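In response to a reviewer's request, we include the raw inputs and outputs for one of the modeled complexes. The two entities were modeled together in a single run.
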Amino acid sequence: MASDIMLTLLFLGAVLAVYYLAPPRIRWGILLAANLIFYASASFWMLLPAGITVCWSWFAGERIEEVHTEKGKRGWLLLGILPLLGVLFVFKYFNFFSASAASLLRFAGFSADPLLLKLMLPMGISYYTFKMISYLADICQGKRAAEPHMGYYLTYVLFFPQILSGPIERSEGFLEQLHRGLYYDSELFAEGIQRIILGLFKKMVIANRLSGYVDTVFASPGEYPGLAAVMAAFFYSFQLYCDFSGYSDIAVGMGNLMGIRSRQNFRCPYFARNIRDFWSRWHISLSGWLRDYVYIPLGGSRVSKAKHSRNLLLTFLASGLWHGDNWTFIVWGGMHGVWNLLSRKKSTETVRPVRRVWQTLVTFSGVTLGWVFFRAENLSAAVSYLRRAVLGFSLSVTDIQNSILPFTGDNTCAAYFLTVCLFLFLLFLYEWGQVYGKGKDKEFSLPAVWMAVMGISTALFGVFGASGFLYAQF
Amino acid sequence: MKRIGKILAAVLFAVLLLTGIKNEYARLLPASSYGMQAAIKKKSVDHLFMGSSMFRQGLSIDVLEEELQGSVYILSYNGNQPAFMAMELEYMLREGLKIGTLYVDLYPYTAAAAPWISDTKILLDTDLGFKLDAWELMSAYNDTKFLDFYEMFVTANNEQILTYPIHNHLVSSQFRNGGNILTPGGQTKEHLDSLGMLGGRDGLQDAQTEGYEKLLELAGEYGIRVCFLETPKYERMYRDEDYMELYEACRSKIRELLEKSGSASGKEADGEEGTDAENFSMILAEELAFDFGDPACFQDLIHLSTEGRICYTRLLCERLEELSTE
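The model returned the following structure tokens for the whole complex.
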């Protein structure tokens, strides 16, 4: 169920029917049951690490609040967080560090075989672990009280629309809504439908359509012209954005249908004019989390220049590592860290449109370069890919034809390519309106015409079938 | 919320309307230079070659037009199966196409597969009735799901229709009278030897043999001469037990059907049996002096290169000439 968005939406429909038939005071219980069913449908046994860590963090939260000394609070915070990070480490990073250590030892002349664990990664572990850490940190810092109702806390951590790919919702807003009661709000319900339509359009019409091309070219870039490698890199940028932000839109929309408000996770990131601007628009819940729980505790920017640089780099390296157990992610994070260091402060000055477009294109191209590392199997594959893109690049007619061919492998490739371009242009127009047009003052808007266009496009041009979400693997 | 409901209802209505129009009327779009609609537009074809990509890659329209008397048309769809070839023939005859001689692709793997349309151009060339019949056939032999139905009736070909002026222009420039005019090169022996074989199948499918039967029935009814053709495969294929097993089964089934049809017996080009070869015949690649081991003649194990296509088509035309004089 978790790997198929249409099944997830059907499940949501069934949940909503029961949810709104029940009195508001027990709706949290229905939601909790739905969370558990959803999680168990992916892997029943994975409920065990999830359940244990959630219970532990709830207990630790209580202890942090009960203790009145700063030292005691910090002690309990550490006690609370360490097991959570330990579980995350064992499931997600142990093999990576073990293999890296063995490689290092071999490089130093010792014989070493890595110890590898055969464990299945629990669904959403990176997301729910971060939720629990922020919950404990907030209690320790006095930003919130410990949640007395364990059921509410479980409902928050395992909230099924967000368990797979986020957003990493903060506890304060979510739990407050549970305490207030979950009521039907027609305006919010309508907004939820709009968000789901927007998300489905991004995911089904654009991301799924691009995935075949991107996978084909990234799998063997040497077999295609350099132009294809360049195209696949840019298409991957769009695929990743549409896949991830599409899921976020759907997840937030699903919450809206149940009367739960969540924060926006993306704000047209490819319209960013510099890298800092980009990070204020991309995966906002994660960048906000890293800012509040890594960057600021390290000292943030209110320290010496050298320490500030260290803090920034460490934050971005942590961001890279969060994404996965591969050096490619660490390089990607490091690259963004350095770029952030080198870039000037977030530009807010008004500049001429031509300069604005130039800044946007430069930022987008730089981000795309980073995505090549993010997407590649390993570092040498990323370097080979970039070599192919640069050294094999030409705009001959044959190369153009061979660069479009991987879309379908037959004579319909041009139609697919043009269709993708058309839908990317439609998305660009919509987002332009959100950034510079009527939508710029609103957190979210999907005018009726756009809703109709995206709805019809999804029904007629959606690429359906079971297809997971890229960010679910992180 | 009411506004959203109205928009959703309008979207649903628009999708249903557009889907209905597409399935019934997309075939009326200006015809390309290949496919059924382009053939129907000709009203009459003396030599119609009907098959899969074996024909698309294996027959040279230039050589056929040069060597055969009368008009020539190659109708090829990727993975075109006998069951659907019969439906296509029936559809074109119903639409008024006159055919002199029909050459049918004898490719055992299509005869061993459960009925399925793998080239959606077939759907673009036909009306709703054809599609419903095709769906019924596919459902009878496959575990079809709603998603398959949705893809066939709702999403299939939408990209081609949306970009029709450009797409049709681009694709049509690759064909003339249904014949592929692109010139793919051959391969090296190393490459062809490195390719994986296509594996075994569970014998011929009933639906496909019924398709051959239906083809012969229609040909008899409309007085069309029929010739089954096997295009050359790379030599490794003829050493492959799985392929040869299917090949033998397919060949004997066709012979059996020709005999059963009563109007003629299957006569192979070597003339080893049969008497009435005028209306029904079969020409196997092995009967021609084709170099099956020349890698320059092949794009892969089953598709011919430009060089192989020209060579095979010339040999085929010579054989057809011999047959007509015998």
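As requested, we also summarize the result in words. DSSP finds 19 helices and no strands in chain A. Residues 5-183 of chain A form one domain.
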